[in-house]
Amino acid sequence: MEVGELTTGSVWTVLVQAARRHADREAVVDGRERLTYEGLTAAAFQVGTAMTAAGVRRGDRVALWAPNSVRWGVVALGAHSIGAVVVPINTRARGGEAARLLRRTDARLLFVADDFLGTGYSAMLRAAAGGTGTDGPVRDLPGLRQIVDFFNEPDAHLTSWAQFLAAAAAPRRVDLRPGVGGTPGPDDIAYVMSTSGSTGDAKGVVVRHGQLLRVYHDLARRLGIGSGDRILGVTPLSHSMGLNAGLLATLLSGGCYVAVDVFDPATTLNRIGQESITVLSGPPTLFTDLMGALRSGGAGAYRPPRLAVTGATTVTAALLDRIRDVLGIELIVTGYGLTETTGTVTARYPSSDTSAAALGAPPLPGVELRVVDASGRPVDTGTAGEVLVRGFNVTSGYYEDPAATAAAIDPDGWLHTGDVGVLGATGELRIVDRLGDTFIVGGFNVYPSEVEQVLSRAPAVAEVAVVGVPDERLGERGVAYVVPVPGQTVSVRDLLDRCRAELAGYKVPAAVITLAELPRLASGKPSRRALRELAGRRAR
What we know:
With 540 residues, the protein is α/β, with parallel strands linked by helices. The protein is 31% helix and 23% strand.
């Protein structure tokens, strides 16, 4: 199976051309809706028309704070039809996190699925941003004109999906030539993808249409994804892997994207069989949980997909063995990427090899790699050092944040990833660790300082340090070490409740441990290495 020729222009032109080739073929599916390529194009065009009626213009930002669904894809593609920029928000984000991202990008519209798993997104947002506004739905977000709810009835502050689409009654003419009229060209921004920095402040990674098309055309070809493939969308569409290696790769190849909003291992095993899934991608946690369900007798209609794709953290050869032996998936691909590299740097060719050698992967064509020491000098082959990336896939920068951009990308165009890797003799990169303090829980980055800021605001906490420690299921988990204010006692329950109220769930520490003092480096800073070692001793 082969992906089609590289399409120039934008994500929207990819969809239009796919609809011409595969009009009656299923394109996107979820538990509520099923759309062919022709139906998806028509639905996205209608959404673009409704956005225009709501005052959205080329270059304006449109945000999505909702789980995976057909409608998520329809809204994103509809925004692309008029040249608007899509701002995905993680469904696990709290109100304050979402408010900061919406404020930074000055988003005009926000789409939500209120009450998803009991989460009231619009209420959380209002609570964090000044309540209801007089001229808009949220007081402290004056640029936000509407909040549209995918599935619920309207109220005084929310627009229903039906109400929103009703504005599309007037026809709209669109010139489909790239960069003309409302439609975007290859150099226009497609997404502002949220990530965090060492300070814990949210940053928006700029991703352009041309980058996306080239990266995921090349990736789909390398993986052998074609029109007969059906890709299971478990990884959130707010994540670069879920959005681009999932939905975009599907559109480029003419396959079908099957959206999963809530991951339940036993149900997912059954869905894989029912929907004839051929490509299963996600972080190691996904495969670990599916294997646990399979061992517990929850196979249902499960039939092994032909291809497994995993990454998002360091991957072990033992995990690859289990994917092959337990899940029965013969072809396995590992790879490496960052949001700042349009999601992908390296990817192996599909292989049944699950040895330690399979953990390394070559870069995409046109992507350069360096591994350097602390002074920035290249290290010898086989020696660990910081990974630097340069190429068409590297972001042009963080959205309206030149200082953060300059700190991450040097004048020669090299992105300093903060990851530690080893380059093999044949140019394959293997990731072994991270230079920074970042750790990854279930495929999501956690930045210790963000958690520390929340914990340090507790009156009884004098000092705090958060580290990531290995976890068999999630890859890593957070442990917080706190030093109480002299004469006071900290409540672990209160500290965890504080984190749950202010942070996405994956950022909440798995444990809070009280110490009389933190171990320190010669500089006086807390020694995170010593704290990780302490956590390891406690786990034995």
